[in-house]
Specification:
The structure is a homodimer of 348-residue chains. Chain A is an alpha/beta fold. In chain A, α5 packs across α13 and α7 crosses α10. Chain A is globular, with a radius of gyration of 23 Å. The two termini of chain A are 37 Å apart. At the A-B interface, β8, α6, α7 and α9 of A face β8, α6, α7 and α9 of B. Chains A, B: Keywords: Kinase, Transferase. Chains A, B: InterPro entries: ATPase_BadF, ATPase_NBD, Euk-type_GlcNAc_Kinase. Chains A, B: GO terms for molecular function: kinase activity. Chains A, B: It comes from Phytohabitans suffuscus.
């Protein structure tokens, strides 16, 4: 086993990353390629990116040394139900000379394993969307939310962006002065306008003011509704920026998002659970105010649970491939060596 | 003036209604035609329905006797900004022999005037969408919400339907037994399934149960997201029915919708305002539980205001056409004769 290798892949919407590693924890290769999700990119294009990332990670390494592989990606159930996508992935795997089996797993499990080596725990992901899942023996157990922007994703980037616009519209309807967040929303959505800090009701006769305020409200609504709804997630950074500048609406929205995300967790995680919680997704990795809000909520509900941040998904996928080949103690040691832990850990 | 007539039209998405009346309050003709909104049906098709309704209301009456006309419809600002639609309406008006001027007004004002002869007040409309407006001297003053399903319509039929699905998904995620409302939602959206009262977690091993529950959750989400979002409003009757059967989730949703609708009103109506509030739209006319919830909220905020239900929009439009031709006393008397008041009035 001493020269045995494992390979892990993290396939996302905009990039595919591969890590080749020894069972001792040495990274012997890495590779990157473009987005490779078959659902959004098509089976052949996705398989081509997969082969590219695999080839780069392997380099001149003998592919026969690779004993196991794990590929993590979103929408894995759909992929597994689609023979054409499966066949395209199989061809890409063989094309680079790999002969070992590989396992397809969902991205929540990869995110989870990138934060902890514990077989049981919970992962909470908030980016454009939001989903929570419990993990048992490194398999997904129960899932909460992830229902998409129309019916769910409570506390996600989409939710923050939509609520920022809703708060702005409510303030405009009421004819109250716009705060920092609302001014940023108007500036972003209606760049031709130059809203004053005094708000739309300032200046002019009351009835004229009301009419022009309504026109601006309609412009704002039209601007948003003409674009794909999910683009509202692009406004989430405005909420974070306004919060940093002391805007109370932004701070309240982040606190509410933290509560909603924690509620999603509470639907599937028992009250006394002491297993770790891994925070993942663009809005929760790193030192973000939403992560702070979520941690506050998690700490109050599960005071005895460790909270960790997700880190390198491709390395975690490689570790998941290696895990069945090792004793629990060796697997744990490999995790420490192979999967870099976030500077924001430990959070307990 | 004794033989003078007025004509009013209420143009909706599915029907166009016309009322021809004398200044004494006699209905001398009525007409109906198909939906005639230029925005949704096109200018020429809308004008043809307008001409049809006008012609039916006039019958053999000399159109020269008609002194004034009012046309109420949704999206009036867009219509007035579109010369082609205006010209098509002008042609329809002339085609039936009418020579008097006509006024185009928004449907909130027509709904308002169908409930009260008071020149100042508030109208709250909840159907598929939701909007509130204050009225001053029979002109729209301020408007709140009406921002559409993505950004607003808080407390509307869309909102009730979406929240019914969200509550169902949350219950399924948590693996709790489905209540009446959630069972009705599943039955409606997944008619092939036969959900048991015990819920998805009942029977089978826990992990298998969880997996199949997640598949059902995904099916439900897919079913909704493949259709136009506004169709969620079609689930609002399930909330009303489940409330009637004692479902607590449904009752809570209706109470919350009532609060949200009243909040929309509070953004534009002063706390001490004693002018009437007219309730309009499919979810608030008639003896509906949402109307009851809204009335409770309105009564607690504006205890001295009369609450009225909207009634016949075409008759109200005819009355609005007649009003400038009469003394205030005569106008008030005409309203009493011409515009039938809902059996659910007075609500004070």
């Amino acid at each position: 086993m001493s020269d045995a290798l494992v390979i892990g892949l993290d396939i996302g919407g905009t990039s595919t990353r591969a890590v080749l590693a020894s069972l001792a924890g040495d990274r012997t290769g890495t590779g990157t390629a473009g987005g490779g999700n078959p659902t959004s990119h098509g089976a052949e294009a996705a398989a081509a990116e997969l082969a590219k990332a695999l080839g780069a990670a392997l380099g001149s390494t003998d592919p026969g040394r690779v004993r196991a592989g794990t590929i993590g990606l979103a929408g894995v159930a759909r992929l597994m139900a689609d023979p054409a996508s499966r066949a395209a992935f199989d061809r890409a795997w063989a094309e680079v000379g790999l002969t070992c089996p590989y396992e397809l797993i969902g991205d929540p499990l990869v995110a989870y394993a990138s934060g902890t080596a514990s077989p049981d725990g919970t992962v909470l992901i908030a980016g454009t969307g939001a989903v929570a899942a419990t993990v048992r023996g490194f398999a997904l157990d129960r899932v909460s939310d992830g229902h998409g922007w129309l019916l769910g994703d409570a506390g996600s980037g989409f939710w923050l962006g939509r609520e920022a616009v809703r708060a702005t519209l409510a303030t405009m309807d009421a004819g109250r002065p716009l705060g920092r967040l609302s001014r940023a929303v108007v500036r972003t959505l209606l760049p031709a306008e130059a809203p004053s800090a005094a708000g739309p009701a300032a200046g002019g006769r009351a009835d004229l003011g009301a009419l022009s305020a309504r026109d601006r409200v309609d412009d704002l609504v039209q601007r948003v509704t003409r674009r794909p709804p999910v683009e509202l997630a692009g406004l989430a950074p405005l909420v974070i920026a306004a919060h940093a500048e002391g805007d109370r609406t932004a701070t309240a929205l982040l606190a509410e998002a933290g509560r909603l995300l924690t509620e999603s967790v509470a639907r599937i995680r028992e009250p006394g659970d002491t297993t770790p919680v891994v925070l993942a997704g663009g809005l929760l990795v790193g030192d973000t105010p939403l992560a702070t809000a979520v941690e506050r909520e998690l700490r109050s509900r599960w005071p005895d649970a460790t909270r960790r941040r997700a880190s390198d998904g491709a390395a975690a996928a490689a570790w998941l491939a290696a895990r069945p080949l090792l004793t629990p103690t060796d697997a744990s040691a490999l995790h420490t060596r192979l999967v870099p832990q976030s500077a924001n850990n430990p959070l307990k």
